[in-house]
Design a protein that fits this description.
This protein has 513 residues and is of the alpha/beta class. It has a domain at 406-513: GMP Synthetase, Chain A, domain 3 (2-Layer Sandwich), CATH 3.30.300.30. Helices cover 32% and strands 27% of the residues. It is built from 17 helices and 27 strands. A 9-stranded mixed sheet has the order 2-1-11-10-12-13-14-15-16, with helices on both faces. The chain has a 5-stranded parallel sheet with strand order 4-3-5-6-7. Strands 17, 18, 20, 21 and 22 form a 5-stranded antiparallel sheet that branches. β13 (270-273), α12 (280-290) and β14 (293-299) form a beta-alpha-beta unit. α8 (174-188) crosses α9 and α10 packs across α11. The termini are far apart.
Length: 513
């Protein structure tokens, strides 16, 4: 990818990170030098190299340098505790680490784990054992070695967010990433004129996929070290950003500070979003305020990650049709197969709920050191996503629930998404999450956790009343709690496991609504 872009677009801007700017020629030179540094350290095919960094150009440089020597990149979430990070470093069998000064306290707390690694590289980091990144780049001259790696080899080991349990090390090959990159370019129509703002963290697969797509077409990748609404808007204006990927929570935060007299966003053509669907209210406000296109991407790390898209044209047209489509995950993308199957793996009729399964060159090789979980996920040539959904007559995929999140109450299966949509239709509701909690009588009871719109008032009985006619009686929430915020991970996914733990006290009292 880089070699082609460096040949075709040598003097074009490749990377922008605060005041630092690099052309494709400079980018290639830095990656080559860093690859020599890795090779000199004894790092080679199959070795794991971890990166613990906020978004920056050095993350990108390391990713491609690791690939050059046939090693495997292991991105680590900077928000994890030292104990969690040490566990992932040991589980992944990492041989070296790149990190930076802002994370020095975390690194000190991992001293015993880091002491076992072959090499440590730091950015503005004066800690024992760390060699300075820029000094290593400056001291090395590229040896001119030929790039020689197996495209079926592992390129990256991404640890899942763990919203449904223990994080798994997802093994994605070079072929997986290339397949996803080509699909993304085809679907999103990226060109060398695109300037993409990497505002979501690169230790998640979603931002990495966009980085690779922009790199492949010779566009410009701009990096935000961390998301701050005003800084985001200033960067869009300054760098004439054409597109970005963010989560709905970020869109909400942008609208809270946006001032049309202060920010010129005329260059911004498309906001790609994911992690969760946009509520109709938030979408209409964002469309009116930001005056750009919107496009949802649905997927999972195990699929590199893109599976389906709600394209810009799906966000246009009559409001009723738009709002119906906003509840979906869009339609499958080019070169990826999607089916809905029953427990025996048989495809179900249109409109019937089953498990979403995926097949394509984008599907992972497996989970690192988890053979049982790999066999369970990859069956009959299909990736079993664990998501329950249905596909309508037009091909739109509607996510119903996580398979593990289906609520089994009184012998009935209740899909939380259906209950959430009914509650969210109340004008006072900003956000809602529905989970199953232990109940002596029902086995599991439907629990709703609701965030109200700013300044709105609403009672439990009003929520129940608004759901009558929308939900069968057995699907009605048995209890409702009102909170200020819902727990989420960095990509905006609601942490339902945390909610279940919070509200797991069983109750045997009868419920009648």
């Amino acid at each position: 990818m880089l070699r082609r872009s460096a040949t075709f677009y040598r003097d074009r801007a490749a990377l922008v990170c605060e005041s630092r700017r690099f052309t494709y020629g400079q980018f290639m030179e830095r990656v080559n030098r860093l690859a020599d540094v890795l090779s000199a350290s004894g790092t080679g095919p199959g070795d794991r190299v971890a990166v613990l960094l906020p978004n920056c150009h050095r993350f990108a440089e390391l990713f491609l340098a690791v690939a050059q020597v046939g090693a495997v990149l292991v991105p680590l979430n900077i928000r994890l505790s030292p104990e969690e990070l040490a566990g992932l470093i040991e589980h992944s069998e990492t041989v070296g680490l790149l990190s930076a000064n802002p994370l020095r306290k975390t690194l000190r707390a991992m001293g015993n784990t880091l002491a076992k690694l072959k090499f440590l590289i730091g950015i503005d980091l004066e800690e024992e054992g760390f060699k300075d990144y820029e000094a290593l780049i400056e001291a090395n001259r590229f040896s001119g070695r030929e790039l020689d790696f197996d495209d079926g080899g592992i390129a990256i080991q991404m640890y899942t967010s763990g919203t449904t349990g223990t994080p798994k090390g997802v093994l994605l090959t070079h072929r997986n990433l290339m397949a996803n990159t080509l699909t993304g370019i085809f679907e999103r129509r990226f060109t060398p004129q695109d300037v993409f703002l990497n505002a979501a963290p690169m230790y998640h697969i979603a931002d990495i996929e966009y980085f690779l797509q922009i790199l492949s077409v010779g566009g410009t990748n701009v990096f935000l070290e961390r998301f701050q609404p005003n800084l985001f808007l200033e960067t869009v204006q300054k760098e004439k950003v054409t597109s970005t990927w963010i989560v709905p929570t970020m869109i909400y935060d942008l609208l809270a500070v946006f001032d049309p007299g202060r920010y010129d966003l005329s260059s911004l053509k498309t906001i790609f979003y994911g992690g969760a669907c946009l509520s109709p209210g938030l979408f209409w406000r964002a469309k009116k305020t930001l005056s750009c296109e919107f496009s949802l991407g649905f997927g999972l790390t195990e699929a590199s990650p893109l599976v389906s898209m709600l394209r810009p044209e799906d966000h246009r047209g009559d409001p009723e049709g738009v709002e119906r489509r906003l509840r979906s995950c869009g339609r499958k993308v080019f070169n990826v197969e999607v089916r809905i199957v029953d427990e025996e793996g048989r495809e179900v009729p249109v409109g019937q709920v089953g498990e979403i399964v995926v097949r394509g060159a984008n599907v992972m090789k497996g989970y690192w050191k988890m053979e049982g979980e790999t066999r369970q996920a990859l069956r009959g040539g299909w990736l079993h996503t664990g998501d329950m959904g249905r596909i309508d007559e037009e091909g739109y995929i509607f996510l119903v629930d996580r398979k593990k999140d289906v609520i089994k109450s009184g012998g009935e299966n209740i899909y939380s998404r259906e209950v959430e949509e009914a509650i969210a239709s109340h004008p006072a509701v900003e956000e809602v999450a529905v989970v199953g909690v232990p109940d002596e009588r029902w086995g599991e009871a439907v629990k709703a956790v609701v965030v109200l719109r700013e300044g709105a008032e609403c009672s439990e009985s009003e929520i129940h009343e608004s759901c009558r006619g929308k939900l069968a009686a057995f699907k009605q929430p048995k209890s409702i709690s009102f909170v200020e915020t819902l727990p989420k991970n960095i990509t905006g996914k609601i942490l339902k496991a945390e909610l279940r733990e919070r509200y797991k006290q069983a109750s045997g009292a009868p419920h009648e609504f």
